[in-house]
Every structure is written in C-alpha cells, then in structure tokens.
Amino acid sequence: MTDYPGYSNAPGSGYPGDPSGGYGGQNPPPGGYPGQGYQGQGGPGGYQGQGGYDQRGYQDQGAPGGYPGQGGPGGYGGQGAPGGYPGQQYGPGGYPGQPGAVPYANWGQRAGGYLIDYLPVWILLWIGISISTTVYALFALVGIVYTGYNRWYLGGSTGQSFGKRALKLRLISEQTGQPIGPLMAFVRDICHILDSLACFIGWLFPLWDAKRQTFADKILSTIVIPE
Asked: Rounded CA gap, 170 and 122, in Å?
C-alpha cells in the first residue's frame, strides 16, 4: 500500500476511512471523532439518536434530564412530568379540581368577602332612605355603579373584588383556572337569586359541599380559592 505524507499505514493509525482505525496517527475513542466525542453508532459519548450525547444530557428518549416533551424528570409538562405547565398535568399545588389541589375557600371566608363587598352599598341605601325617596334613588344608582365596578368588572377580570382581595381569595373558572370575565361575573350575581330561594339554602350550601360552591357557582362552574 502506498504511504501518504503525514499518514501511517500501521493498523489503528491509517488515513480516514481506513477500517483499521485512526486519523493521522491518533486512535479516536470508540465510535467517536477525535476530540469531539461524536458518536454515530451508539457507543458511550455518542450523539443522541444513536446512543447518548456525552456530558450534555441531550436525550429525546425520556432519560433523566432528557429533552422536554418526552416526560423525563424535569421535562416539559404535558407528559406527566413533575412541574408541567398548566393545562396539561397539574402537579402538587394545582388549583382545585386538579391533582394536588389546594383547599377551597371555606364558608366563613366567602361570607366575609361578600359582606365587605356589599356593606358600603347597604349603608349608603340606609342613609338615603332615611333622608328621602329622591336621595335613596340617587344613592341606589351610586350603589349599582359601585357594585358593577367592584364585583363585575374587578371580580370578573381579576378574580378579586374588594372583599376577596381583602381576604386573599380569588374567583376562577373550574375548567380553566382563570377569571371568568365581567359578563359572567354579572350573570353569576344574577344566579345568586336562586341561592336565596328555599330559605336561602343556596347560600349555606358551601358549608357541606365538597367544592364549597353555591348554586350559582355550580351553574357557571366557578370556584373560590385562597389566593
């Protein structure tokens, strides 16, 4: 065999492609490109897809530390890996209705938030009716505007009216875990009329209900949780 300048024909040190081995007199590690650890045949240190990428943990087969989307520990949520992103698999600490749910707001917390929301309106109406019918009508209008901003706009867009914010509670959709929006917050307050029927039993329902829901909550699939 003819010698090439700078190369040796000895086994293990031949020119590139020589089945006997090395490159320029150097024997590469098994399956690798010298100095790179590039493995295309599945040996240790090889490029993943054939058998692992050396010291980088770049795996798409679900090994620990693997590439997100394969479900290895630390991987991208959605495959059941701890710490997955919301909407796929809720790990410990997810909102109620999901695995690892936090507690629902109890009846006392909910009643306290409701009282804080409506007490200013009740006081205003009491003052108005004590003065005159005209003043009462004016104060009633102010009360409606206040309620619309507090319970429907703030409560719907952020999940927190003044009362819920004071007690660190939040109103959310059971399906999405997000605030329900001003329109649905308004509809929810209308549905509270059903809670007042049959001796106000709907208002007391959170005392024993598993999800601490009133009838209005059950109709709209809403829940109240600690923030």
From this structure: 23
Per-domain residue ranges of the chain: 107-226
Handedness of CA 212, 217, 223, 227 (dihedral sign): negative
What does the pLDDT look like over 167-192, one tens digit per residue? 999 999 999 999 999 999 999 999 99
pLDDT, tens digit, for every residue of 65-124? 444 444 444 444 334 434 433 433 333 445 545 545 568 999 999 999 999 999 999 999
What's the Cα-to-Cα distance from 93 to each of 83, 98, 103, 174, rounded to whole Å?
Answer: 10, 9, 9, 15
How far apart CA 95 and CA 87 sit, in angstroms, is 11
3-class secondary-structure state, position 205: helix
Side chain identity, residue 64: P
- Sign of the torsion formed by the C-alpha atoms of 174, 116, 204 and 141: negative
Do the Cβ atoms of 140 and 191 come closer than 8 Å?
A: no
> What global pTM score does this model have?
0.57
Among 207, 202, 115, 192, residue whose Cα is nearest residue 161: 115
* Per-residue pLDDT tens over the stretch 126-154: 999 999 999 999 999 999 999 999 999 99
Q: Identify whether the C-beta of residue 105 lies closer than 8 Å to the C-beta of residue 226.
A: yes
